[in-house]
From TrEMBL:
One of its GO terms (molecular function) is zinc ion binding. This is Uncharacterized protein. It comes from Microthlaspi erraticum. Residues 362-445 form a coiled coil. The keyword Nucleus applies. It is found in: Nucleus. Residues 150-285 form the Oberon-like PHD finger domain. It holds the Pfam family DUF7081. The lineage of its organism: Eukaryota, Viridiplantae, Streptophyta, Embryophyta, Tracheophyta.
Length: 470
């Protein structure tokens, strides 16, 4: 009779566990999200999750609280709060304090990934299934696959192909991805609806810009949504796109020419002409208006192919054309473009922008004008204060001169003869000249009534101490 070890009984019990979704900031004790009876029987660990959820539907922030009797409990490894915040810190602690412990077996005894309530509870194999002669301490490679949007065709549910290099991870996002029902892998960042993988996913764009070491943005968007929102294609103004895509999440730009280049290859695998025309029309919308030579050549090729289909060519005949010919101007295409064909091509209209874009642009212009007028008002108020101070100072100067003149005239009237009378008369005459000069100066200063911009620069520099560059 075969003997069943306690390890095997524990493993069989854990295999039947269902990982229920938990709420943000929820906490608990023991299995399935914290170890039990480790390192001694009766030892129980506590767990807690934070508010952020990644694209896989699991919590980004999860904390593990060990029993307080463990040695070296208050060390730099645990950091603040006496909790393990990462799997790496916990592994370092175990290797340091319990060098003889089986680390792989320890992590296989509970689930480090904690699904949120946005996902569906799924069974998980906490232990790998081994044969009797295999080592049960091998590292756990099982993984929970949960789509927050409930999309059963989400790319996160498809096992990735084996690759030799380390796969890139998606950027942790606490903005759009924190919304319930939004999945980074399959939810459009612009309309929040699921993307389609039909025809090799031609209808969506994925931002693969590297935002950190081994981390990419990973957000996706429908091509049509990006075109409507002026975030794809050829867009002028401050954004300045030319057959490119602008990611709203990380501000990265993606060249769409290689994306459209795949359309001809994808179309060769499509059986229905209506779907082919739909794909080619989208390629025309992306490339229309481009100034790049390679994009223009690709646009011409796609337009030629679409014209042939509208002229009655079968899909087989279109794709039987030699590949070099596809990328050059086909002579018989020009002959085939009769009025009916051109009218059919005109029916392939670009995706019109939705109204809110015009309103947003008008609002942006309104803000710019308001800022300009505000700056102008502030500048005019500053000029007014300068002019007010200088003009009043000049007025006070003239008033003082008039007072001195009145005083000197009074003294002159009392002494009409002698040397003192001649001296006082000279003072009165000088005062009159001085008053005349200051009055003329005031008249020149009053030129600012037309505005500083129309006032001669000499007056601004001499009387208002404003240096004006040519």
């Amino acid at each position: 009779m075969k003997t069943i070890t306690p390890y095997q009984r524990n493993r069989d019990a854990l295999l039947r566990l269902v990982l229920r979704g938990v709420r943000p900031m929820e906490s608990g004790v023991g299995l399935p999200y914290a170890p039990e009876n480790w390192p001694k029987p009766g030892d129980t660990w506590r767990w807690r999750v934070g508010p952020r959820v990644n694209g896989k539907g699991t919590f980004v922030d999860r904390y593990l609280y060990p029993p307080k009797h463990l040695p070296e409990f208050s060390t730099e490894i645990l950091r603040k709060g006496n909790a393990f915040r990462s799997r790496l810190s916990l592994e370092r602690y175990i290797r340091r304090v319990f060098p003889k412990a089986d680390v792989a077996k320890f992590f296989a005894s509970f689930s480090w990934s904690i699904p949120s309530t946005g996902g569906v509870a799924q069974k998980q194999c906490l232990y790998p299934v081994y044969s009797s002669d295999e080592d049960p301490s091998r590292e756990l490679k099982s993984h929970i696959a949960v789509c927050k949007a409930g999309n059963d065709k989400c790319s996160s549910l498809i096992p990735p192909p084996p690759i030799e290099t380390e796969p890139l991870t998606t950027m942790p996002c606490d903005i759009c991805c924190s919304e319930p029902g939004f999945c980074t892998e399959c939810s459009c960042i612009l309309c929040c609806k699921s993307i389609s993988l039909e025809h090799k996913g031609y209808s969506y764009i994925k931002c693969e810009d590297v935002v950190g070491e081994g981390i990419i943005c990973g957000h996706v968007a429908h091509v049509t949504c990006a075109l409507r929102a002026y975030m794809a294609g050829t867009v002028g103004g401050s954004i300045g796109l030319d057959a490119e895509y602008y990611c709203r999440r990380c501000d990265a730009r993606k060249d769409l020419v290689p994306h459209v280049h795949r359309f001809l290859e994808i179309c060769q695998t499509v059986k229905f002409q209506g779907d082919v025309e739909k794909i080619l029309t989208l390629g025309i919308c992306i490339l229309r208006g481009t100034q790049r030579n390679n994009a223009k050549a690709l646009l011409s090729c796609i337009e030629s192919t679409l014209v042939k289909l509208k002229c009655g060519w079968s899909l087989e005949d279109v794709w039987n054309v030699d590949t070099p010919t596809l990328w050059s101007d086909v002579s018989d295409v020009g002959e085939a473009r009769d009025n009916d064909t051109l009218q059919g091509l005109q029916d392939v209209t670009p995706i019109e922008p939705i109204p809110f874009n015009h309103e947003a642009e008008a609002h942006k212009l309104e803000e710019e004008i308001r800022d300009v007028l505000k700056a102008l008002r502030e500048a005019q108020e500053s000029e007014y204060r300068i002019a007010e101070a200088r003009l009043h100072a000049q007025k006070e100067c003239l008033v003082d001169l008039y007072r001195q003149l009145e005083k000197e005239k009074t003294e002159l009237s009392r002494r009409v003869s002698g040397r003192d009378g001649d001296s006082l008369l000279n003072d009165v005459l000088k005062r009159l000249d001085q008053i005349k000069k200051e009055a003329t100066k005031l008249k020149e200063m009053e030129e600012v009534a037309r505005g500083f911009g129309l006032t001669p620069t000499g007056i601004l520099e001499e009387y208002f101490h404003l240096r004006v560059d040519e």
